[in-house]
Specification:
Chain lengths: 320, 715, 327
């Protein structure tokens, strides 16, 4: 049929048969990602920070619990590359530890919440009807709850939760409130996928439901999940910093980037390095993640590649 | 814009006295359009020339990618800024190319207007219909008073056949059906009495009955305004009755131009010949194979060195590959031009079937066996599917029932093809889904290969039934998982049966050959195939488990005409070779006539007429069947210009409003002509499906006289 | 329409009830005000603490269910949201706090919406030109900056302005100067207190609107109906302005639902950083003080705000989109 609206698509259609090189879709995505310089830079910064958080401890002889009585509240010096806190603790050691906790929270929350949303969303779409209605109600009720208050209650309470380390508590609470948006997206995407003819075809062939979900649904929502994983990491890191900054997230003795930045606010003028250094690290972390997100989104979206102008100089001349 | 292009081929032609541009309301010369794409510059339109005379109609015919829509958009100045357009487009002698957007706006909508393909998305959803018509008036008549504009809008709506136009001015587009919206689009286009009206596939998205209405409206519009019309289409039938001249486009270039008679009765370019032979005819019982055009159109991102059709042309010789042929005059018929170096050889008796080596009509082993002696592969007994129509969010109230399928009974015997036809919404797709679902809780009985749905409680019985029946889908792209290679696509049903690996591999190779695909392409992904090839993969998948019955849901409606023929031939051949039975749903009655043995016409969930396809099509008894058949345009200009056609009024009514008696009475052309006493019967009693010979139909007044208002003849 | 809104409100009421109840159980099982009482001097005996809490309806020995029933009963029969460990009534302070918060947010909500949508339209019109790149990059930058840190940076900036000028132009904390004369001085004082938080919340708030509006408009500039409008004789810009723009408002109107509670959440940070004694600060402080009833009441307020936002969004959608108008 000749449903032509977009002249480019029209031409692409007729060209489909001419492509002789067989390229897997994941390879195309990888190539497109690697072509995006910003995204690659983001990836490198993130990997560097990750390695730093794991092995940065070897760059300084100090650790985060040791007080250097000779250098209390000192700026960067050969002894302490990044200076010390007013308690005499090496900032480098603190940053290494804080970055690790922040990345750790980001990875766990990003990963697990994607899993939860995939399972929850697919279940809703697959069963539909009453199950879907009830699950959707729960989901919306959770969206309605102000997450920040629950975080505050959970991490500040004097009750049974007190025994858990604050980072673990924060992970649990963030997980609780991080998956609903994606779950809703997964639901609507799976619902539209279930209407696709190839899913119907498999059904009519007698392929069992669980196999259909596994072979047709999951791979096709894969790109959404990968994107959401990186987005989830960014979100969790930001949330951790924000909550810890106002004192309701991670609590001492645990350190994170948010705790370090938050603690330093009182003495920005006297100990500026204590504020600006962790802030810079946080920026590098969230910034690199955002840069990667952007590249991934472009790589997954076949329509995003911008098409240049056809007007050459000579062509312009003939028109004028 | 260049005023000095005196050396283009077109100018030379004009100098030769072949065109008379002085009188032309629109003349296009050497129009070229290039786009940048990821794979380089695509030369989408390569030298289009034509002159449009006042009041005349030019049909531009071509498949997707032929550049026909791009041509129209270039004329309108609606292409993206990134497109490189060269050549000349003159409106009454004034050059339009190179005008600024603002300068072009003086012409758009007042001198040249356009109707687009998709009426559903072409109107702004947030403004009323009246608002959008009035806007078209305001742009070109800023001084017109509000009352005058409103009056004019009402007049326009009345002209395009919208009932109670005054009230409908305040309606929003979503309150209109597709056909109604296309009428509104036409009203907007003719609002300022344009001299040129470009219609880009104006009826492609519509049902045949609605298509007939909209074509009629276009006809009226042309008569009222006296505008010249450019009708762009892929359907050779649509333009046969309307056009004065035809331009056939291929790969961005006009390959044959001439009067409508020249093109339809004396084509001189193999591509046009192939196109004409590729379309099945609804009006003849001729069951010859269709003319298949192998291959796909060329990639326009690559430079063209020879005749662009040569790779697909059975007559191509070495000479065809060197230099692209320019359109040259066909000796003996003035104004008829074909871009082919073998034009002379193609005169008179040349037959497309012979040239394209159309296969012989395949013979099935069942052909000699009487129908009643063959086994039933599928039987439906009083199958019903009613959807409750609910209202209310918390506590649902049932406000009615949609009888999507209402008591359907038919059977299909070995080796035969039954087609279900009807407008969208008549329940034909629901019928297929009901059969495919095959569930004991269904209302009515579905028997497949001797197994009834009533006993299909365990998965083993279901599995056995799945082996008997498979499905081919409408959209070949949507039917294949984009992440699967062809091998994986075809392996899925086989692995599901527990076939060992080696056997799967062997079977897949077999299937690829069977559907005419290269066996070494199994590792490719669906997006590396053309639409026709994808549909072949879909067919191969359906055949993988050796079913007896294949359900075909609009199997060729998403394909281009030339590709469609190949797929239809393949279906024909497979049916004969493998002794398959088909159950097909299609809106294209020409395809139905070509491929089926029997046909069932559905209206609002019920079969209104059924029987042998030739009998029903040659001698339709039910008024609906008569109207449906009459709505199909035939690719034969002489016939198309003179024949009477029944134009049904209105759309398919909502199944909710189904009347008590005959549910077709609201639109029935026979009913409208009946005296009141007889009408009473139609309104109170439901006509049963009664048989007369082999044919069955549900009407009290078969062959009745048609109401004059619904009968149209173009003088 | 009215029926539809009533029904939606009903559903949200049920949701609010559920979230608030869940919040109460969470609060009652984690917040233990008795722990803080131990730090008082002279240290009261556990019996004294229990007795005084029992009088306030905060019996530490009662099961969470018993306390829930008592608390719920108070709300249903007397609209009494309970008392704080120090004996104060929640109801008494609630209205003041809501007023402070509302005063703080209202200006920035409106400014954010207007500026965000305007910049979105502007950047879409200038797609890929430098104006678009600057505006959109800024919005993405805001996305990777946690709100409290952003506010803190603005605060630092305001302080340095004050220091540079050598005079206190802006107040970076608090809501008003105590004992200020009414009239003109009071007004100047008001502006000086409002300027910094409103500025901070606005410049870090519009990013979401800007990106959404830009995207929706770009999605629509090549729509079929824009082409129709151009075919009528409108220039490309006119067609976009009259047709694409209006259609692109539909999803933006819907997204308001999700930004109103987001502003509320952002409000916690704003109130914490700028020390405005609004509802957000109150809730954070109450949690520090292990105050179950205040924490729950503020949580309920958050849910109500969300519901209002969602209903407003429905309402806005029906205003701009005739397709969803209920006949």
């Amino acid at each position: 049929m000749t449903n032509i609206i977009d002249p480019i698509a029209e031409i692409d259609e007729s060209r489909a048969a001419d492509q002789d090189v067989v390229i897997g879709k994941s390879r195309i995505i990888f190539r497109r990602f690697m072509r995006n310089r910003t995204a690659v830079a983001g990836l490198f910064i993130f990997l560097a920070l990750f390695l730093f958080s794991l092995f940065g401890g070897f760059l300084t002889p100090w650790d985060k619990d040791t007080i250097d009585p000779l250098n209390i509240g000192m700026g960067p010096s050969p002894d302490h590359f990044l200076g010390t806190s007013q308690a005499g603790i090496d900032l480098m050691a603190l940053i290494v530890e804080g970055t690790r906790i922040s990345i750790f929270i980001g990875l766990i929350v990003g990963g697990v919440s994607v899993l939860i949303s995939a399972v929850y969303g697919c279940t809703m779409a697959f069963f539909g009807g009453k199950v879907d209605a009830v699950m959707l109600f729960i989901l919306e009720a959770l969206i309605m709850m102000p997450a920040i208050l629950v975080v505050a209650v959970a991490t500040s309470g004097g009750g049974g939760l007190k025994n858990l380390p604050s980072w673990l508590l924060l992970i649990i609470v963030l997980l609780f409130f991080s998956w609903m948006g994606t779950a809703r997206l997964v639901r609507s995407l799976s619902m539209s996928l279930m209407q696709r003819d190839y899913v119907k075809a498999a059904k009519y062939m007698g392929v069992p439901s669980r196999k259909i979900v596994w072979r047709h649904l999951v791979p096709n929502i894969g790109s959404l999940l990968v994107l959401d994983f990186t987005r989830g990491i960014t979100g969790a890191v930001l949330a951790e910093v924000a909550f810890s900054f106002i004192g309701i997230g991670i609590k001492l003795p645990d350190v994170s980037l948010g705790v370090l930045i938050g603690q330093a606010t009182g003495q920005v003028s006297s100990f500026p390095w204590m504020f600006w250094v962790p802030l810079t690290v946080m920026f590098l972390l969230t910034g690199s993640l955002a840069m990667m997100n952007d590249g991934l989104r472009d790589a997954f979206d076949p329509s995003s590649s911008s098409i240049g102008r056809a007007k050459t100089k000579t062509a312009k001349k003939t028109i004028k | 814009m260049s005023t000095n292009i005196s050396h283009t081929p077109a100018e030379r032609l004009r100098d030769a006295g072949l065109y008379a541009p002085g009188d032309a309301v629109l003349s296009v010369r050497d129009l070229n359009v290039r786009f940048n794409s990821e794979n380089g510059v695509v030369h989408a339109v390569r030298g289009v020339d034509f002159d449009l005379m006042p009041g005349k109609t030019l049909g531009i015919v071509g498949e997707s990618g032929s550049g026909k829509s791009v041509t129209s958009m270039a004329i309108m100045g609606l292409l993206p800024e990134t497109a490189d357009i060269s050549g000349s487009v003159r409106y009454k002698g004034k050059e339009l190319l190179g005008l600024s957007d603002k300068a072009m706006c003086k012409h758009r909508g007042s001198d040249i207007a356009m109707v687009f393909q998709d009426p559903l998305s072409s109107l702004t959803p947030v403004y009323t219909v009246g608002n959008q018509i009035i806007e078209a008036l305001t742009v070109h008549n800023p001084t017109m008073s509000k009352q005058a504009k409103e009056a004019r809008a009402v007049e326009l709506l009345r002209m395009v056949g919208i009932p109670s136009p005054k009230d409908r001015l305040k309606a929003f587009p979503h309150e209109f059906s597709g056909g109604m919206r296309q009428r509104v689009m036409i009203a907007i286009a003719i609002a300022n009495d344009p001299r040129v009206l470009i219609a880009d596939e104006p009826t492609t998205a519509l049902d045949v009955t609605i298509q007939a209405q909209v074509l009629e409206v276009l006809h009226t519009a042309q008569e009222e305004t006296g505008a010249a019309v450019v009708m762009i289409t892929h359907d050779l039938g649509v333009v046969a009755g309307m056009a004065d001249d035809i331009m056939v486009m291929y790969a961005g270039k006009p390959v044959e131009t001439g009067t409508v008679e020249d093109i339809y009765y004396n084509p001189r370019m193999p591509y046009s010949m192939g196109l004409l032979g590729a379309v099945p005819r609804v009006d003849t019982a001729n069951k010859q194979s269709l003319v298949p055009i192998e291959g796909t159109p060329p990639n326009l991102a690559l430079p063209v060195t020879g005749c662009s059709f040569a790779p697909r042309c059975p007559l191509a010789s070495d000479a065809c590959l060197h230099g692209e042929p320019e359109p040259v005059s066909v000796p003996g018929s003035e104004g008829h031009r074909a871009a082919c170096i073998k034009t002379d050889e193609l005169s008179g008796e040349a037959n497309a079937h012979a040239i394209f080596q159309a296969p012989a009509k395949p013979v099935s082993k069942f052909d000699g066996v009487a129908r009643l002696e063959r086994e039933k592969v599928l039987e439906l007994k009083d199958v019903k599917k009613h959807f409750p129509l609910l209202k209310g969010a918390l506590i649902k109230r049932r406000i009615g029932t949609v009888k999507a399928v209402d008591g359907l009974s038919f059977d299909i015997r070995e080796g035969e093809c039954l087609s279900i036809v009807g407008e969208s919404g008549c329940g034909k797709t629901t019928t297929l889904l009901e059969i495919m679902e095959f569930h004991p809780d269904q209302v009515g009985e579905v028997v497949i290969g001797g197994v009834s749905n009533k006993v299909a409680t365990d998965s083993k019985t279901k599995m056995a039934m799945r082996k008997e029946m498979q499905m081919v889908f409408q959209d070949p792209t949507g039917a294949l998982d984009p992440r699967f290679t062809v091998y994986e696509v075809l392996a899925e049903p086989l692995e599901n049966l527990g076939m060992p690996r080696a056997a799967v591999r062997k079977r897949i190779m077999e299937l690829m050959r069977l559907v005419g695909l290269q066996a070494d392409h199994v590792n490719r992904f669906p997006n590396q195939f053309s639409g026709g090839q994808r549909q072949r993969i879909g067919i191969a998948r359906a055949l993988a488990v050796n079913p007896k019955l294949v359900v075909l849901d609009e199997p060729v409606s998403a394909l281009d005409v030339s590709v469609q023929a190949g797929v239809i031939n393949l279906l024909d051949q497979l049916r004969a070779e493998l002794g398959l039975s088909y159950l097909m749903v299609a809106h294209d009655l020409s395809v139905v006539r070509h491929i089926s043995d029997r046909v069932a016409v559905m209206y609002l969930g019920k079969i209104v007429e059924t029987g042998d396809v030739d009998e029903v099509f040659d001698n339709p008894r039910h008024p609906y069947t008569r109207a449906l058949l009459s709505a199909i345009p035939v690719p034969d200009p002489n016939l198309e210009r003179t024949r009477e056609r029944i134009i049904l009024q209105g759309d398919l009514p909502s199944p909710l409003d189904a009347p008590k008696g005959c549910n077709f009475a609201t639109r029935c052309p026979v009913f409208a002509a009946l005296p009141a006493a007889k009408q009473e019967k139609c309104l109170t009693l439901e006509p049963p499906l009664a048989s007369e010979g082999q044919q069955e139909f549900a009407c009290f007044f078969p062959d009745g006289e048609i109401d004059a208002d619904m009968l149209v003849v173009h003088a | 329409m009215l029926k539809y809104l009533t029904k939606r409100s009903g559903i949200y009421l049920i949701m609010i009830f559920l979230t608030t109840s869940a919040g109460y159980f969470l609060a009652v099982s984690t917040l233990k005000p008795a722990v803080l009482e131990q730090e008082k001097i002279p240290r009261p005996t556990p019996e004294q603490v229990a007795a005084s809490f029992r009088g306030l309806g905060l019996d530490p020995d009662a099961t969470p269910w018993e306390r829930y029933i008592g608390w719920l009963g108070g709300i249903i029969t007397r609209w009494d949201w309970g008392r704080s460990p120090n004996g104060a009534f929640v109801n008494a302070e609630f209205a003041d706090r809501v007023l402070v918060s509302t005063r703080l947010f209202i200006a920035s909500i409106i400014l954010t919406l207007i500026i965000g949508v305007a910049l979105g339209v502007y950047s879409a019109a200038r797609q890929y030109k430098y104006q678009d790149r600057v505006i959109t990059s800024y919005s993405y930058l805001v996305h990777i900056l946690p709100a409290p840190i952003a506010y803190f940076l603005v605060q630092l900036g305001a302080i340095s302005v004050n220091e540079t000028v050598g005079q206190r132009i802006f107040f970076v904390t608090g809501i008003s100067t105590p004992g200020i004369e009414p009239g003109w001085p009071a007004f100047v004082d008001l502006v000086a207190h409002y300027a910094v938080p409103t500025f901070a919340m606005t410049i870090f708030g519009w990013a979401g609107y800007q990106i959404a509006q830009r995207q929706y408009l770009l999605d629509n500039v090549n729509a079929d109906f824009v082409r129709t409008a151009r075919a009528k004789g409108l220039t490309r810009n006119q067609a976009i302005r009259r047709h694409a723009l209006r259609v692109s408002f539909i999803p933006v109107a819907q997204s308001i639902a999700f930004t109103i509670p987001a502003i509320f959440t952002g409000g916690f940070f704003a109130e914490a950083i700028f020390a405005w004694p609004g509802i957000g600060l109150w809730s954070i402080q109450s949690i520090g003080l292990q105050d179950v009833n205040v924490a729950t009441a503020t949580l309920a307020y958050g849910s109500v705000i969300f519901a209002i936002g969602a209903i407003l969004a429905d309402f806005a959608t029906t205003l701009v989109d005739p397709r969803v108008r209920v006949q």
